[in-house]
Amino acid sequence: MQPATWQLKQQMCELGHRIWLRGYCAGNEGNHSARIGDDHVLCTPTGISKGFLKPEDICVCDLDGNQVEDNPVGRKRSSEVLLHVAIYKARPDVRAVIHSHPPHATAFAVAGIPLPEGIHPEAEVFLGRVPTAPFAMPSTQDLPDSVVAVMDEHTNTVLMGNHGSVSFSRDLTDAYYKLEILDAYCRILLLCHQLGRANVLSPDENAQLLQVKQKFGMDDPRLECAPRGCVGEQNDPFFASFDVRPTTATCSCNGGDVATAHGGAGDADPSEALVASITDQIMAKLQS
Ligand SMILES: [Zn+2]
């Protein structure tokens, strides 16, 4: 049953505090919303830290983004409510949307590197494929248009180019979990990058994960890419950023080669590079 409106407002305030504490939104950044009934949403106001919201700060809008009730303390709805209502319209099953700027995930959106797949079970099961929308100007219709264009019925999280992320789900808590899992996963990936290596799961392991996910009632279209799933199709840009080793796609759909490990320094023989460098210097001396 949908919580009463007042309870939802309280939940939005508590959630804002968690988002702020985790550093997902600095200053006045970010906004989140919850659907009430079929055609209205509760939305955070503009120009205020999401860490210290009070229930009376929450605004009420229709699905065109118009504020439909006078706010008791004079708050105006976030201009990014356009993003929220576009997602509610595109996906009737969605009842909560959180837009924020989680630093580790946003780094991928700024670098223009698609989120790699087939690496971590939590990300595979609870996020699935996370598309990246191209940059669009905030507070314009271009922003929701760019996000909705990369969504399908299975999407629950989108990276927004040079901007941040948006997570959405059946309720506020689940949408927030997706945000936390997203940024934790991206933090792990960046730490792997510092270590110079990341192993990917085998196609069979990925297929098993997707089957477990299906048992939980979460369909993943990658499982349809029989027989072992098509996880990892967008991995090359991330592994190319390790800058030493060539990478191999992990998708098994076309019977191609499968690699289970990617990375740089771990695969290279440093003595070979040293010998090559010394040889080059000797040859240069001899020729001078
Ligand atoms: Zn933003």
Descriptive notes:
- With 288 residues, the protein is α+β, with helices and mostly antiparallel strands.
- The protein has two domains: 5-195, Class II aldolase/adducin N-terminal domain (L-fuculose-1-phosphate Aldolase); 198-263, no CATH class.
- Helix content is 39%, strand content 13%.
- It has helices spanning 5-21, 81-90, 103-111, 121-127, 142-149, 172-195, 203-215, 236-240, 270-287; strands at 31-36, 40-43, 59-62, 96-100, 132-133, 157-160, 164-169, 197-199, 261-263.
- The strands form two sheets. Strands 3-2-1-4-7-6-5 form a seven-stranded mixed β-sheet, sandwiched between helices.
- Strand 6 (157-160) and strand 7 form a beta hairpin.
- The protein is globular, with a radius of gyration of 22 Å.
- Residues 264-270 have low confidence and may be disordered.
- Zinc ion (ZN) binds next to loops.
What's the CATH topology name of the largest domain?
Answer: L-fuculose-1-phosphate Aldolase
* Shape assignment: globular
CATH H-level superfamily title of the largest domain: Class II aldolase/adducin N-terminal domain
Series of H and E elements: HEEEHEHHEHEEHEHHEH
Return the domain count: 2
- Total strands: 9
> DSSP strand (E) fraction?
5-15%
What molecules are bound to this protein? Answer: zinc ion
Q: Segments where pLDDT lies below 50 for 5+ residues?
A: 264-270
Helix content: 25-40%
Helix count equals: 9
- Indicate the radius of gyration in whole angstroms: 22 Å
- Describe the main β-sheet briefly: 7 strands, mixed
CATH architecture type of the largest domain: 3-Layer(aba) Sandwich
Distance between the first and last residues' Cα? 83 Å
Record the strand order, biggest sheet: 3-2-1-4-7-6-5
Question: Strand pairing plus helix content: what structural class?
Answer: alpha+beta
Mean pLDDT: 88
What is the CATH class designation of the largest domain? Alpha Beta
